[in-house]
Amino acid sequence: MNYNWNWNIFWDIAPDGTGTYFESLIAGLKWTLATAGLGWVIALALGLVIGTLRTAPNKWVVRLANAYVELFRNIPLIVQMFLWYFVFPEVLPEAWGTALKQLPNAPFVTAVLSLGFFTSARVAVQVSTGINALPRGQKMAGTALGLTLPQTYRFVLLPMAFRIIIPSLINEVAAIIKNSSVALSIGLIELMASTRSMQEMSFKTFEAFSAATIIYLIVSVVAILMSNLLEKKLRVPGFITSGSANSGGH
After folding, report:
1. Which of 35-44, 119-128, 200-209 has the lowest mean pLDDT?
2. What's the rounded Cα separation, in Å, for the pair 240 and 48?
3. 229 - beta bridge partners?
4. Quick one: how far is CA 150 from the chain centroid?
5. Which end of the chain is more exposed for a tag (fewer CB within 10 A), N or C?
6. Distance of alpha carbon 32 from the chain centroid
7. What does pTM read for this prediction?
8. Alpha carbon distance 144, 148 (integer Å)
9. Which of 46, 10, 15 shows the shortest CA–CA distance to 26?
């Protein structure tokens, strides 16, 4: 292949006047991290609740929690984003739909919610798996100490379960960063959208996607290093972890 690489292209001013191509990629990275970070907060909070409910003694509560997981885990993320962004405002009462369409930076809000709901289903599975991996005697011990069921979950089961599933949760962090690139489809100018814009304006496809690859790789490596550090500090001796950060995301 006779291709003339030009790595200096990153310092050229982009035709859209937003700065150099490098500054455009960094701006996209900031939106990527903001989207993934807020989405992860939603995913962790919802995943904790739904995952705990999946282990509750009431079978109807378990069925509802399982239905939530199957709904958001099995519908592709890009479909969910389209539904939230294009369809959901249309099925609401007109005033509500108009208000949603006029939200400032609606693509960002939609991407955060979509990522949060999608990833929360995966986190819920991790949480319920961690709780079910604990010996049954721990729940019985909490009851014997006079703790209520919510107190047993709060002070005994969930702290132990979280220490077991930390590697899997960190994998989900790496996954949500990568999945944030789907937000390109609804118009959010995150890292992948900035890369596509650079490619189209400069015709330097290989340089643009090489830079995006390196940036995604650096972010993933940082997440894995954090995982290894947390795993070493919080590992529960004698328990088998539900996954490893080194096993990769999806």
Report:
1. 200-209
2. 20
3. none
4. 27
5. N
6. 11
7. 0.85
8. 10
9. 10
